[in-house]
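[#protein-structures] MJ: dropping Protein NDNF here for a structure pass
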Amino acid sequence: LKMSWFWLYLPLHLLMATCLCHSIKAPTTSSQQSFKTNLFNFYHSLILADGKETTIHLLKDIPKRYYFALEEGRVLAPFSITVTPCDVPIEWSILVYKSPPGKATPGDHDTQEVSKSQKASSIASTIFSYKGNSVETYMGMSSHSALYLLEFLSTERDTHITVYLTTDTTSGHLYPELPADPRIDVIGIGHTTVTLTWKHSPSVLQHRENIQYCLLVNEKHNYKSLCAAETAIRSSGMKLPPTLALSLSPYLLEPQQVMILSDSELSIINKVSSGEVRQVCMGTKNTYTVPSLSPSTQYYFDVFIVNLLTNASAAYTGTFARTLEEPEPKVTELKDGKVIHVVLDGKKQKFYSLQYQARHKKIHFTFQLCQGQIQVHITRNGKTVASENLSGMRYFSVKGKLLDTYLVQLRSTEEFNSSVKVQASPHFHKPLFPVLPESLKIKSFSKLRTCRSVTIAWLGTQEESKYCVYRKKIEEDQIWRELQSADRCSGPESRHKAEKVLCKYFYDLNLQRAVTTETIKGLEAGTLYLFDVYLFGPSGIPVRYHSKVVKTRKKC
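AK: finished. structure tokens for Protein NDNF:
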């Protein structure tokens, strides 16, 4: 607009202020021009940019106004305004200031004072108003030049919004286009998965390389825009990368975020107080199965179509689904005195259940950990009687009533598989496992090491038992693997005959003296050896002591 039109369309209170200045002192042409320029520069910062998305911050209960003017001389002037609330509901409206034809011309306006009749003729009318937190677009068409005022107000709290104005409706859109049916369909529900599908955006067909779909999964509610979702996550204490589409760099992640990149899909998982918030960008695929969900949990799903060049997005209509309840775990029955070997999946982290019905008041549970580490939870008639993390062999003695039902639940606490042997028997029943010493550690004596021999010691018990010693030559890079992968339930039958050193019997009624030593000779200088001791009880079932690695001296 030319300056004359801009002045003519100023709001009524500004026109009154202008007249008041004129009534006090008629300014010269130069001072008049300076006054106009200063006032114009003040309002220039509140003029809404055309063809650009503008972020506007709103303070509670304080309205904010932006102006824009349609170009003079166009027969028809189409325009559209899109407002996206990024948090709480807001109120916004569009007012238009129009002036009847034949009013002040550019030449006359620079020298004449604005009259009261001219002020009154510049009338404002509201052409659109909205209250809520949905993304709204107003499309208008004007046959003459006009000045428009947009007013925004937040009555709940400080917030921010984005506003996009365009008068060019022929060269494409900033926002990706939604299909005629923007709903997300749930086509499959499992215990830990939900499968979704949605209709393709027309923008994908036209600009496939610059468009992608991003999915947001959370346990709270649906979001009507991408900026609303980001604001909610940030308010829960998270720092979020600017958009889902640009969250492709690991250095943008916070400690509470986990990024997973597989099969050309990017997943970012945020751990927040209200649950898990998951973001997945899957390119232009319009069907996706969300994995690793919790059973019997309601999830909300939002799909956003994102333009990678402009960073603008549009939201499909969100949906929700509840995963199926987890099936009752299979329960294996424990029988008196019978040993059950259980292998636990470290990846699934699920409990394995064993059930035992007592035929005696006193019950003895024995756990021999073979590999890894496990968590044991024992209940009697639904009430917990023992719960512990195990890293070796452990006995639990419990006292109850006849026909009490015991449930033993086992779970691996490692990322890899763990295994354990379990036995339940009456307290007076002769146990299959041997009586164990206070510690299953093997001790070596550094001062007694030579180039050709090593001296080791281990604890015994008050019960006469058989002990067998084995040795194995290993390399430096094999130590961790040998110690971690050792099956502590396997007996000497799994060892090579050449590794056997000796077998011996011993016991001592005085536990303070129940210790034995052994010097292993015929070793190589400067060499690493892995030593194992096996304890055999009356039943013949072995218990393996913790392996010990010792290196002989290089020089003697």
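MJ: nice. Helices lie at 3-8, 12-24, 29-44, 106-109, 116-121, 202-206, 226-235, 479-485.
AK: one more thing. The domain at 442-551 is CATH 2.60.40.10 (Immunoglobulin-like).
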